[in-house]
Design brief:
Aldehyde Dehydrogenase, Chain A, domain 2; alpha/beta; 2 domains; Aldehyde Dehydrogenase, Chain A, domain 1; about 475 residues; binds nicotinamide-adenine-dinucleotide; 7-stranded mixed sheet; single chain; 6-stranded mixed sheet; 15 helices; globular
């Protein structure tokens, strides 16, 4: 299937006529031709977004909200088609796309449609002076996303950007272009004016770089890897662009000896292996307090071995295929490195050969490694696959030091029944989000983002409306 860009309300081929081959992760077969767009395509999309900006930003909040509500409804009526496309394109279980990815995309549009109607400006008064702060849209927003939660993360940016009155040029991952392309039909049905939201496919070096460098794109919201984020920061700094970076993670899952072991294990198997471990928030470093360590390792091993890896389309499948052959090789390389670094592979970690049409797919068994030092590479570098390490500890301070002892700072989870300890430890973790006795619970009003090498800035709720607007203070002498 040959895909196209969405520019100015029309599906268009890349100007240079070049395409990238994309394979279906579950079969390894070439399935899609993805536009290999270049600066000229990006330029046309930016120009369309620039032309659409005055009318779109001039609409009332209510009118924009109504358009976003129609977009949400239109995705919802196509939920099955979107879920099937997301699963085929990314390799994730269809059931997961149906339960999480697509409903979350719908929720993103609904949430920001409501939020923009309840947003308000701030005012400050004092003797003889009145100050108020106006928020106004920034202009054309450049939105760049990775492959692991393709539509969910893209709509997390499109919805607030458009709600606040910006127009947008989106650059989905070249590995997962399918559901973004399906938005063309959705926008058309929802009556979104041409040029308000454009989609340009291509590589990071081609289309992504051109978007970051474009002088008429004053804002970039990027989700992806830390080294790409650093490069984008370098590119955009001299251009003084507004920039949000949601980057990699190496998240700690800290289990204290008083934890509810059953509940913790049920959640930990998901926080380790859901979406093939390809979620930035996965708890890839598990620290377990003695004397719970042996019971935890045995419990997680049993659950990992029972985790159903297989055809993403099958209802019982819990883990599908990794995104690409190169990524599978990288993840298996970390399993080999874990052995070299003195770790014991407790289960999994090998490629899984499935029969029939899945014979060329990128499957592997979920992997648990123990016995590694906290500062070794496997415990420090982001693997972004179904591999977790488990390390024992005795004292709370040791757990905190190990949890904070990485360059990343995205999220952490704590398992304890001790309320004081939960508050105390949460306040000392250098991460953007701490979950206590749960994982991945999200309230769209809550600011989301990372510390250290996990990112810059916060998006979510009011923070998104701040990020996607410029603020102007007006001071009046009374
Ligand atoms: P990546 O950085 O390779 O690519 C992300 C996007 O950036 C893609 O669309 C890519 O084409 C584009 N890109 C690459 N080079 C670019 C450049 N020079 N200029 C502009 N755009 C460029 O990341 P990936 O492999 O697609 O995704 C995995 C990473 O994303 C992991 O590190 C994961 O932790 C991270 N991630 C973070 C979050 C978060 O919220 N913090 C969420 C999901 C994924």
């Amino acid at each position: 299937m040959q895909l196209a860009n969405l520019i100015d309300g029309r599906l268009q081929p890349p100007r240079a006529g070049r395409y990238l081959e994309r394979r279906n992760p579950a079969t390894g077969q070439v399935a899609w031709q993805v536009p290999d767009s270049q600066a000229a395509d990006v330029g046309a999309a930016v120009e369309a977004a620039r032309r659409a900006f005055p009318a779109w930003s001039g609409r009332s909040q209510q009118e924009r909200a109504e358009a976003l509500q129609r977009v949400a409804r239109s995705i919802e009526t196509r939920l099955e088609a979107f879920a099937a496309a997301e699963s085929a394109n990314q390799g994730k279980p269809l059931s997961l796309a149906r339960r999480i990815d697509i409903p979350r995309a719908v929720a993103n549009f609904r949430y920001f449609a409501a939020a923009i109607q309840h947003s308000h400006e701030r005012a400050f008064s004092g003797p003889g002076l009145l100050n108020y702060t106006l928020r106004r849209p920034v202009g054309v927003a450049g939105l760049i996303v990775p492959w692991n939660l393709p539509l969910y993360l893209l709509t997390w940016k499109i919805a607030p950007a458009l709600a606040a009155g910006n127009t947008a040029v989106c650059k989905p991952s070249e590995l997962t272009p399918l559901t973004a392309t399906m938005l063309a039909e959705v926008f058309d049905e929802a009556g979104l004016p041409s040029g308000v939201c454009n989609i340009v496919h291509g590589t990071g070096a081609g289309a992504g770089q051109a978007l970051c460098e474009h002088p008429d794109v004053p804002l970039i919201s990027f989700t992806g890897g830390t080294s790409t984020g650093a490069h984008i920061q370098h590119t955009t700094a001299p251009l003084f662009k507004k920039l949000s970076l949601e980057l990699g993670g190496k998240n700690a899952n800290i289990v204290f000896a008083d934890a509810d072991l059953e509940a913790c294990l049920e959640t930990s198997v998901r926080s380790s292996f859901i979406n093939q471990g390809e979620v930035c928030l996965c708890g890839s470093r598990i620290f377990v307090q003695q004397p719970l360590y042996d019971a935890f390792v045995a419990g997680l091993k049993a659950r990992a071995e029972a985790f159903v890896v297989g055809d993403p389309a099958e209802a019982e499948t819990q883990m599908g295929a990794l995104i690409s052959a190169a990524h599978l090789e990288k993840v298996l390389g970390y399993v080999a490195l874990a052995r070299d670094e003195g770790g014991e592979v407790v289960c999994g970690g090998q490629r899984l050969e499935l029969p029939g049409r899945l014979a060329g797919g990128y499957f592997m068994r979920p992997c648990i490694v123990t016995g590694l030092a906290p500062d070794c590479r496997v415990q420090q570098e982001e693997i972004f696959g179904p591999v977790v390490t488990i390390t024992p500890f005795e004292a709370e301070e040791t757990a905190l030091a190990m949890a904070n002892g990485t360059r990343y700072g995205l999220s952490a989870s704590l398992w304890t029944r001790d309320l004081s300890r939960a508050h105390r430890v949460a306040s000392q973790l250098d991460v953007g989000t701490v979950w206590v006795n749960t994982w991945l619970a999200r309230d769209l009003r809550v600011p989301f983002g990372g510390m250290k090498a996990s990112g810059l800035g916060r998006e979510g709720g009011e923070d998104s409306l701040d990020f996607y607007t410029e603020q102007v203070n007006v001071c009046i002498k009374l």
